[in-house]
Amino acid sequence: ACGGLGYDSDTVWGRNTAVPAFQVGMRKAAAATGAAYLDNSRLFHGREVCTENPWARGLFIDVTKPGLPDENSVRQSFHPNAAGHRAFASCLTQLYDSGLREASCADPASTGNPVLTGAAFDDLFVPLKNEATGSCADLPASVTRNGTAIGGWDCHGGRNQNWWYDAGTQTARTALSHDRCMDVPGAKYDAGATLVVWDCSGAANQKFVRQAGTLRPAAATHLCLTLA
User: Fold this and answer.
1) CATH for 125-217 (2.80.10.50, 3.30.70.100, 3.30.365.10, 3.30.465.10)
2) Which residue intervals of 38-128 are DSSP H helices?
3) What gap in Å lies between CA 117 and CA 3, rounded to an integer?
4) Which are the contacts of 129, defined by CB distance < 8 A and separation ≥ 6?
5) How far apart are CA 152 and CA 10, in angstroms?
6) pLDDT digit string (tens) for 67-86?
7) Does residue 39 sit in helix, strand or coil?
8) Which residue stretches of the chain are H helix?
9) Where does the record place the Ricin B lectin domain (predicted)?
């Protein structure tokens, strides 16, 4: 009904493989030519087709077009909608006003207001490694559904093991989706509780602090994150 088509596996491939590869190529091209570079690859995370407040259309058929339906009837499908175009305009305006050569733009709190970050996202997302075990915080099979448990796995450098700890917001985001943050389920700060990813909300149970080489819930700094 919302216009989303195709297989989930194709969508996952697009988000996790195709778009990142395109973004890497664009960054290299900008660096080689001296052009300004804006990473918008995560701008629509949480705003995809079929989400609550999408910034893109799914299959859209223009029934007002004169004549019989043809390829022009669906030419606006799978493109930004009005809100999506406003988001792009906001990011470009912020980049122009900043004077930066490299920057990234996303909607980190799902407020509808894109925020410019003065760095390329690829430089911000890094593995969270347990120095004792050598394993990394990992989202199994690159699944980012709300409630997906965060585990530990041998470090391999994949996007499902890369995180951005933003000291300003005290949140830890997965590289797979800018709309998924590390979360203490139900704000139950119990030893042995399994952390999950959830829609980034800025709530207290998604805030963490770095302390003495550890990552700790801001509301329960006597506890540390460990990997089983």
Assistant:
1) 2.80.10.50
2) 82-98
3) 32
4) 135, 136, 137, 155
5) 26
6) 888 888 888 888 899 999 99
7) strand
8) 8-13, 19-33, 82-98
9) 126-227
β-strand pairing of 37-39 with 102-106 = parallel
| Side chain identity at residue 86, one-letter code | R
Query: Six-digit token pair at 99?
Result: 């004077």
Which of 92, 4, 1 is closest to 48 using CA atoms?
Answer: 4
The pairs formed by 213-216 with CB atoms below 8 angstroms and a separation of 24 or more are 213/131, 215/128, 215/165, 215/172
DSSP code for 17: I
Query: What's the confidence (pLDDT) of residue 140?
Result: 95
3-state secondary structure of 205: helix
The confidence score (pLDDT) of residue 65 equals: 87
Short-list 174, 178, 42, 14, CA closest to 103 = 42
Q: Where are the chain's structural domains?
A: 8-62+71-122, 125-217
151 close to 138: Cβ distance less than 8 angstroms: yes
Q: Which two tokens stand for residue 51?
A: 């989400």
Q: Which of 61, 171, 158 is nearest to 109 (CA)?
A: 171
Reading the block at residue 140, the tokens are: 């199994």
- Joined tokens for residue 45: 């995370």
CA neighbor of 144 nearest in space, from 6, 31, 21, 45: 45
What pLDDT is recorded for position 4?
54
168-184 burial by CB neighbour count: b if 16+ within 10 A, else e? eebbbbbbbbbbbbbbb
CB atoms within 10 A of CB 72: 11
Kindly state the helix (H) or strand (E) to which residue 28 belongs, with its residue range.
helix 19-33
Structure tokens belonging to residue 75 = 């030419």
